[in-house]
Amino acid sequence: MYLKRIGFIVSVLFFIACDNSGSSSKQLLPSPSNNNNYKIIMAKGGSSFAIKADDSLWAWGLNTNGQLGDGTTLNRRTPVKIMDSVSSVSSVSFSPISTGIMAMKYTMAIKTDGSLWAWGDAEYDRPLAPGKTFAVDRLRPNPVKIMESVSSVSASNGSRMAIKTYGSLCA
After folding, report:
1. To the nearest whole number, what is the mean pLDDT of the chain?
2. How far is Cα 169 from Cα 149, in angstroms, rounded to an integer?
3. Euclidean distance between CA atoms 146 and 160, whole angstroms
4. Which residue, among 95, 114, 104, has the nearest Cα to 163 in the 3D structure?
5. 3 backbone dihedrals φ, ψ, rounded to 5°
6. Which of 12, 58, 70, 113 has the highest CB neighbour count under 10 A?
7. Cα–Cα separations (whole angstroms), residue 123 to 25, 71, 168
8. Which 8-state DSSP code applies to residue 115?
9. Strands 150-156, 103-111: parallel, antiparallel or unpaired by DSSP?
10. In this structure, what DSSP letter does residue 127 have?
11. 140 Cβ contact partners less than 8 Å away, ≥ 6 residues apart
């Protein structure tokens, strides 16, 4: 519970004090446009994700491992569009023993067509199925397609599992 509180505090502090220009702002929530229409929101390890009503995925916050999926490792103060046709998003964070602060490693999304996508840092992770890892050179700041026909995905540091649309489990 203590580490979850620290992760939340780090997320809030990011919006208060961090941006790429070095300036400080007290804006806690981003306001990219007047037409937000968010239907799902997820925040972990200083990074935030939202799926809008049109099923587009947006991300902002810390991005040191490419976990936002925008092709960079730059922190983002305002949401950037990652991809269209997304039905769910999941992320994996870890807590280094030296700091005890949660940091995000990688992110996965399931698109409305059932395809599973992943991006970020998978240094200590393993593939969902033989030959289906996205960690070819470890850091992937762009989404990489992992597999088709996925209905659900769950991940933690060191493992991830997916349930295929026909009910089989990939671990």
Report:
1. 75
2. 11
3. 12
4. 114
5. -65, -35
6. 58
7. 33, 18, 26
8. -
9. unpaired
10. -
11. 66, 118, 119, 120, 121, 122, 134
Answer whether 43's CB lies under 8 Å from 32's CB.
no
Backbone torsions φ then ψ of 8, nearest 5 degrees:
-65, -45
Distance CA 63, CA 137 (A): 17
At 92, which amino acid appears? V
Whole-number Cα distances in Å, 60 to 43, 49, 68, 151: 9, 7, 7, 25
Whether pLDDT at 160 is above 60: yes
Digit-coded pLDDT (tens) for 119-145: 888 654 555 545 555 444 467 788 988
Contacts of residue 154, defined as CB under 8 A and 6 or more positions apart, other chains included, come to: 90, 160, 161, 162
Report the predicted TM-score, pTM, of the whole model to 2 decimal places: 0.73
- Angle 21-26-30 (CA atoms, 0-180°, nearest 5)? 75
What does the alpha-carbon distance between residue 28 and residue 86 come to, in Å, rounded to a whole number?
Answer: 25
Q: Write down the pLDDT at residue 27.
A: 44
